[in-house]
Design goal:
3 helices; 4-stranded antiparallel β-sheet; 4 strands; 22% helix; Alpha-Beta Plaits; alpha+beta; 103 residues
C-alpha cells in the first residue's frame, strides 16, 4: 500500500471557499487503476489541510500523476487561488490495524 499526503496551507479567510471548491470538484480518481481511497482532512488547530490518497502501489500513484485524468483534476491548481501553498509527502505503508468485526 502507498499513501500520498498533500499538506495544503490555506489562510483562514479562504478556508470556506477552498472546502467548497474541493467538495464540488469533478471526481477523477475512482476509475484509476490501483486507487483505494481519498480523504480531505480539515485542520482543527492550524491552517494545514491534508489531502490523502491511498494506492495499491507507488506505481499506481505515479501512473495517476502522469494521466490525463490527473491533469483535468488539477486544471486550476486549487490551493494557489486561495492564497495557500502545498507540500507533497509520500509513504509506503508497513503496518495496518483495523477494528475487529462486531459480534
Amino acid at each position: 500500500m502507498f499513501v500520498s499526503m498533500n499538506c495544503v496551507t490555506i489562510p483562514a479567510e479562504s478556508a470556506e471557499d477552498f472546502e467548497r471548491a474541493f467538495l464540488s470538484r469533478e471526481r477523477h480518481m475512482a476509475d484509476s487503476p490501483g486507487f483505494v481511497r481519498f480523504q480531505l482532512m480539515r485542520p482543527l488547530r492550524n491552517e494545514e489541510y491534508l489531502v490523502v490518497t491511498e494506492w495499491e502501489s507507488e506505481q499506481a500513484f505515479r501512473d495517476w500523476v502522469s494521466s490525463d485524468a490527473f491533469k483535468r483534476a488539477h486544471r486550476g491548481d486549487g490551493q494557489r487561488g486561495f492564497g495557500g501553498h502545498s507540500e507533497l509527502r509520500t509513504y509506503e505503508v508497513i503496518d495496518v490495524e483495523t477494528a475487529a468485526p462486531s459480534a
